[in-house]
Write a structure and sequence with these properties.
binds nicotinamide-adenine-dinucleotide, 18 helices, 14 strands, 434 residues, six-stranded parallel β-sheet, globular, alpha/beta, Rossmann fold, 14% strand, 46% helix
Length: 434
């Protein structure tokens, strides 16, 4: 099938590349000419393991093309996926400017039936606004549908998630739209992709916000438990294990730490809270999830301050700038809280991240970064761990101790065993395990 994908970011590029790899003819569109130029020249605008090989293969096969022209995208395919950003607006609600723009531009260029698919994470009832927009700007006398197909991929494992999804949620209000989407996903379903769930458009939109908010809630829950563990003298890892083997709870997303970040959870929880408010139903549970997440960073910062006493002129090494390993995405990463806070207190900072340095420097060009863990930790008075990259987990701890001015670790990801690392002579603070 022919497919257009508008928005060639983390979701759009992965989606487009994986659809092409499944045998479809895909045109990826982005209004950022720099991004499209990079792709035309064979460079990836983002870091995502395995993506470059899939893009290269499908470009060579002629199944994956790139363009900045939405008119071309509208003419190219009967199905147009919208994968543009939905960042937080002024009040925290999802900013729908880019989605609206695409709806308008597609409508203006549409001369025959088109199916517009919301791949971006959007608030419930967006499809109604999108339909109104298309009707307003439509020039030709033609039919169209709007569907919702929320994306559940995770950065870092996006290719596996897109090619072997546990569920494909499809919100449609016509059989024609359902058939088109089923045809697109057929190769993925045939290779063992999970359930194909057909539902109403509003339910599909809501399923995405409800899923992300639930996962964020799990993280805030275990972080709240972690604080109680510290006060009660329990170990949150053991508590989480005791909880997680219950299949009703499950072990994942029960890792205590600095709280959730990234381009999705913070903004999606916020948007869901705002949507509930707008519908006249205050979602107090989610507001508390947000409060816990915000205070969790402050909680870890308190550990740093207590340890250093005077922060000014102390050298602090930071491992991890992206919001998680295997991605260069720094949106809402914990580092964006710790770096400016520590700079305000006049600490001397050096950071390490194998792939996110340049994206982080677009925001904080003044941060000193090095590409070697031990060089980064050299002469440090404290090491702050904000990542689970395997390089950090597998560090030579004796070598680390030897290069640091003072062997102190504040571990915001709980990656080391407290007793083991203390037996090596480190002062070690983690979350919920003291
Ligand atoms: N990143 C994730 O892990 C993830 C996972 C699931 C869902 N989502 C959702 O998917 C959506 C996209 O997220 P992302 O991380 O890929 O964002 P992104 O910022 O990486 O990519 C969005 C792209 O859209 C382009 N764009 C904006 N307006 C455009 C327009 N009018 N025409 C053409 N291109 C336009 C931008 O230039 C950018 O390249 C968001 O709604 C997000 O919440 C993201």
């Amino acid at each position: 099938m022919k497919i257009s994908v508008v928005g060639t970011g983390y979701v759009g590029l992965v989606t487009g590349a994986c659809f092409a790899d499944a045998g479809h003819d895909v045109l990826c569109i982005d209004n950022d000419p720099k991004k499209i130029k990079m792709l035309h020249n064979g460079f990836m605008p983002i870091y995502e393991p395995g993506l470059d090989a899939i893009v290269e293969r499908n470009v060579k096969l002629g199944r994956l093309k790139f363009s900045t022209c939405i008119k071309e995208g509208t003419e190219f395919a009967p199905v147009i996926f919208i994968a543009v950003g939905t960042p937080p607006g002024v009040g925290g609600e999802a900013n729908m400017t880019y989605v609206e723009q695409v709806g308008r531009q597609v409508a203006e260029n549409m001369t025959e039936y088109r199916l517009l698919v919301e791949k971006s994470t959007v608030p419930a009832q967006t499809s109604e606004y999108l339909k109104r927009t298309v009707l307003k700007y439509l020039r030709a006398d033609t039919d169209f549908d709007v569907a919702s197909n929320p994306e559940f991929l995770r950065e870092g494992t996006a290719i596996e998630d897109a090619t072997h999804p546990d569920r494909i949620v499809v919100g449609v209000d016509s059989d024609r739209a359902a058939d088109l989407l089923e045809e697109i996903y057929r190769p993925i379903l045939e290779k063992g992709g999970g359930a194909f769930l057909r539902m109403s458009v509003t339910s599909a939109e809501l399923a995405k916000h409800a899923s992300n908010s639930f996962l964020a809630m799990k993280i805030s829950y275990i972080n709240a438990v972690a604080r109680i563990c510290e006060l009660a003298g329990a170990d949150v890892e053991q508590v989480a294990k005791g909880m997680g083997l219950d299949p009703r709870i499950g072990p994942r997303f029960l890792n205590a730490g600095v709280g959730y970040g990234g381009s999705c959870f913070p903004k999606d929880v916020d948007a869901f809270v705002r949507l509930a408010d707008a519908l006249g139903c205050e979602f107090t549970l989610l507001k508390e999830v947000q409060n816990i997440n915000k205070s969790q960073r402050e909680y870890v910062m308190k550990k740093i301050k207590q340890e250093l006493w005077v922060v000014q002129d102390k050298k602090v090494a930071i491992f991890g700038l992206a919001f998680k390993p295997e991605t260069d995405d720094v949106r809402e990463a914990p580092s964006l809280y710790f770096v400016p806070k520590l700079q305000e207190m006049k600490a001397k900072l050096t950071a390490w991240d194998p792939v996110a340095e340049s994206k982080f420097k677009e925001i904080h060009p003044d941060l000193d970064c090095v590409q070697d863990l031990y060089e980064c930790a050299k002469d440090a008075d404290l090491l702050l761990i904000l990542t689970e990259w395997s390089e950090v987990k597998n560090m030579d701890l004796q070598k680390l101790k030897n290069v640091m001015a003072s062997p102190v670790i504040v571990d915001g990801r709980n990656i080391f065993h407290p007793e083991e690392i203390r037996s090596l002579g480190f002062t070690y603070h983690s979350v919920g395990r003291n």
